[in-house]
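Teaching assistant here, posting this on the class forum so everyone can see the example we discussed in section. The complex has two components, and the goal was to see what a joint structure prediction looks like when all of them are supplied at once.
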Amino acid sequence: MIIYGVALLSVCLVVGMLLGEALGVMLGVEANVGGVGIAMLFLVLVSNSDTFKSLTTGVSGDGIRFWSGMYIPIVVAMAARQNVAAAVEGGFLALTAGIAAVVVSFALVPVLTPQNRQD
Amino acid sequence: MDVIETVFLRNNLVVAFAVVGVVLWLSYVLAEKLTAGRIHGSAIAIAIGLLAAWWGGETTGGSRGVADITFLGGIGLMGGGMLRDFAIVATAFGVHLDELKKAGFAGIFSIITGVVVSFIVGAAVAVLFGYTDPVAITTIGAGAVTYIVGPVTGDAIGASDAVITLSVAAGLVKSILVMIGTPMVASAIGLNNPQSAMVFGGLMGTTSGVAAGLAATDPKLVPYGAMTATFYTGVGCLLAPSILYFAVQAFF
């Protein structure tokens, strides 16, 4: 059943979020620390394990695959609800700070990526 | 007119599905016809989304882009945090554990580096613009981390509303620039494998920016970048009002 896959995905997200929230409280931080990342790890573990095979293959798997496929449309909707006007009105300082942070971070990607040994 | 309004309002999420579907279809047609596939259809769709958000904010004065327009309220739910996180987690389906292990340490290292580097850059820009108050410098630096770390830090160390607003704006600029810029620089920075995607996510950190930027570059890389990016804001909220604030105090 499709709902089995959807339910499995939901449980991964909720448990990940709970752990992320607990981690935030433990660290004294007003934020969810990696809840989504932890949830993703759960889903990776579950989808690589034989125990949960019936929930991640066939029609049940389609329930997860559907939401994975909805990702780009959801991201487009997310872009459409950003506060772009405020970013534009933030003025020169906000613009400079944002651009500089992105440029420097882009430049560091090849520096920090582990080298590929095969070439 | 009343009939239309009732139907659109009552079914706002479904309306959003239809609208986003049309936008994506149009974007893929444009990508094919105008750019011969050089620019990814989803990159065009995201750009249209951002333009629409700007227009929405200008016309309504609200803070949720196009979602503040009555008929398009469903976009707010569809693109909100809950469904975004749900879909991001779903992209991890089919990811191999080995790929994650290969970049494990580099991924963690990139998160801390990303937070510290963005903070230093933001703080330096604040100093260049004439700020000398450590609270303001720290808050603007934190804004360059993400638009969530900025206000969280500002509140924690007692920054003024004006400075907090600036920090949010800096974070928004960063997030939007990552969305637009990633597909353009992807090949130059070697962003074409799971390992570099994990490092990328850790360095950029803005979940929305990374999510959209990678989607427009290569959807297969999304889970790897998203995985590290989601830890970034938490680490930023941890470091900015504490260690990084103390460091700024030592200088000013």
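For the discussion questions: Chain A has two domains: 2-81, 83-113. The longest helix of chain A spans residues 2-27. Think about how each of these relates to the inputs above.
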